[in-house]
Amino acid sequence: MDTKAIKHTLKAYSLRQTECREEILAIFLNKAHALAHADVETQMSEKFDRVTVYRTLKTFLDKGLIHKVLDDEGSIKYALCKDNCHQDDHHHHHDHVHFKCSSCGLTTCLDHVVIPAVVLPEGYKRVETNLLVQGVCKDCNAKQLG
Amino acid sequence: MDTKAIKHTLKAYSLRQTECREEILAIFLNKAHALAHADVETQMSEKFDRVTVYRTLKTFLDKGLIHKVLDDEGSIKYALCKDNCHQDDHHHHHDHVHFKCSSCGLTTCLDHVVIPAVVLPEGYKRVETNLLVQGVCKDCNAKQLG
DNA sequence: CTGTGTGCAAACACTTTGCAGGTGT
DNA sequence: ACACCTGCAAAGTGTTTGCACACAG
Q: S-S: A120 plus which of A124, B8, B104, B143, CB 3.0-4.6 Å?
């Protein structure tokens, strides 16, 4: 993976460049799906402390590098934000469609799926919308049919 | 609250009628919003064991009496299913719109809000859709304005 | 009577906090 | 040099499991 891009990204988000952060960011870049804390931990080649992983994820979240992905199991997952999703300025970016596959268990961002407008009852003020679709993903469907 | 209805409901879901179950079911009936395990526990007049509350919620979930409500904090919440949502036969009932108010913190089911059709990419098979809208609810909005 | 529910104790898993020392800028 | 990261230890919190007894049907 492009370590230059990783370093550049950290810098762009005003984050110090440490080995732990580079590795965690690399994991997110390599994997296209959302990761829970436990997923990140198990995928780290070098063992950093659990606590450091917790703190790194929280830092990334605060800085707007990653965002939360809802899950039906109670474990919070995280996924990389797309470009231009900074700390002060990611309100326009709060609508996400996520797909969780019951077969492979992975949750992916469906960036190209348009989230339909939801008509709320009178008096409700919408700030953020999260849509989680569960089912069987493309790959698993193909395997079953093959 | 109508204890007769509660007993009837337990029976309808093939659940033994115990004090604990009646009380938990009563709490769900009284409260219009989704409840996490901790919420249920704190609202029980008589103190039953934490473990019993966990098991009761799991049982209710398995039988289709309640359903999961997504949350952005990682804590699973539960809410009563509407009528005709039985164990074998609640696939048609899997689409929910929930609203979480950032002011009062309550998550409510918006039963009358139509969940828009989501167009998935080719190959994806949808089974269930969960939509969580966050913002400010009717009541809190009214208070702020008042 | 039988199968299930409950309480208790304990194990287990998850997450946060405080502090001392190390590291990036 | 300074601020911030990290690791360790420990505490705090949330959840599950096993077993003995109680209770609903």
A: A124
Q: For position A57, which CATH number holds?
A: 1.10.10.10
What is the DSSP code (8-state) at residue A79?
Answer: E
B105 touches chain A (CB under 8 A): no
| pLDDT tens, position by position, A46-79 | 789 999 999 999 999 999 999 999 999 989 999 9
Q: B103 vs chain A: nearest CA distance in angstroms? A: 11
Per the DSSP assignment, residues forming a β-bridge with A126 are: B135
Mutual angle of helices A50-63 and A19-30, in 10-degree steps: 70
Residue at minimum CA to C1' distance from nucleotide C24: A16
Q: Using the beta-carbon criterion (under 8 Å), do A141 and B130 form an inter-chain contact?
A: no
Q: Is the CB of B73 under 7 A from strand C?
A: no
Supply the mean pLDDT for chain B.
Answer: 90
Check CB contact under 8 Å for B141 and A125.
yes
Q: How far apart are CA A50 and CA B41, in angstroms?
A: 30
Number of domains composing chain A: 1
Query: For residues A50-62, b (16+ Cβ closer than 10 Å) or e, as one string?
Result: eeebeebbebbee
What residues make up the domain containing A55? 3-145
- Taking only the tens place, the pLDDT of each residue in B60-89 is 999 999 999 999 998 999 999 875 444 444
Tens digits of per-residue pLDDT, B98-135? Answer: 999 999 999 999 988 888 889 999 999 999 999 999 99
How would you class B44 by CB atoms within 10 Å of its CB: exposed for 0-12, middle for 13-18, buried for 19 or more?
middle
Chain A residues in contact with B71 (beta carbon < 8 A): 70, 74
Place of tokens 């919003």: B33
Interface probe with B: pick from A57, A111, A133, A140, most Cβ of B within 10 Å: A133
